[in-house]
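note to self — DONT lose this again. spent like an hour looking for the file last time. sequence + predicted structure for the chain T wanted, 434 res
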Amino acid sequence: MEDQKPHLHVSNSPLSRAVAAVAAFANFEGATENAAEGPVLLVSGKKLEGLEAARFIAKQHKETESLLGVNGAAQKEVQDWLDWADKELGDTSAGLDKKKHLGKLAKLNQSLTDKVFLVANRLSLADIVLAAAVAPLIPGLDERSQLTLFALVRWFDFLQHYPKIGHSISTQTIEFDLNAPFKPLPAKPVAEGKEKEKEKGGEKADSKPAPAKGEKAKPAPKEQAKKEGAPQKGKEAAPKEAGAAKPQPAKGKGKQPAPKKEEKADITRLDIRVGVIRSVARHPSADKLYVEQIDLGEGEPRQVVSGLVEFVPESEMLNARVICLCNLKPAKMRDVMSHAMVLCGSNKEHTAVELIKAPEDAKLGERIIIAGFEGEPDERLNPKRNPWSVVQPDLFINDDLVASYKDKKTGNVIPFQTSAGPCKVKSLVGASIA
């Protein structure tokens, strides 16, 4: 006698949505029903509740069993995250409580800074459960909080669009402006006061030992006149000298150092965006160059010249979803103007070059996400002090073929991300990016 088909009862709780997502991912063959309470799985006379239901469903197929962890270490890490979600986040159905949740979300954000998934760089039950738990909290985050928790937002947005599971994780798709500029908080008045004191050059210290020389010598002539019965010319001249000296700090203000964006050669200054090559042709006067028309979501395509003829066939170039450095100064390449640079992975000998491709679902014109390095890029990079030459040695292709940036300060390796996932090459592990 055949066993009855399993029945999965799910409510609208975050945990139920997570179990429903696992069922969808595993092509669950039983019946799924909405219920006031859940998740509960009825199978072969057994009643499995909560995550036990998810584990049972995942184990039914080899492909989905990996959701529990690909090896012993990964299984332990998945379980640690599930325990953390239960203990630290709990039931999030009521929405965001800033005092309770922001610190927890910051920890999750930190763990995701250089990762696509939480465990072993592949989708696991930990991702599904935590994404479902976070879903009710996201709408309560303001723009600044979303940008501060950028790695978490990027991860959640990726999962809510993930095939099969995305529609179950959240009751509705949450829209993000992933290219929104970060608006820094205004400078503190105290800091401004300290700067002014520095500019004055320590007026208080000067006024005591040498009133004739310092700017605060005004009281000196009056006190001296009372003591000696007559004003002294030399002392009376001191206030005039002080008055003449007052504009000097203002002159110094005109020679303040350039803004930080100009001083720091960091990756935030690079405007790297997703584009599609709409047409490609050989350069009229250079055998090794292509001339492409690349759609970057700007209305009109940009003309770009690339030295890829020896490495990438035209058929692969056409309609490729690539990433481009868009704020270089336009330059002529053999009499043809180029308005961006297509980024590629190249081996050390430069005998093999591959396009770095964005996922097919990535939006045209969206800026590449380097988690932890948010901010507005330069409108146009200065050719004389171009940060690209400083940052480029820290760009490479990691072991998973993902374009990455290594932060020198922390040693963290951070993937090039889009709203649809990471940017990758076909085969060149360890390649440089140029």
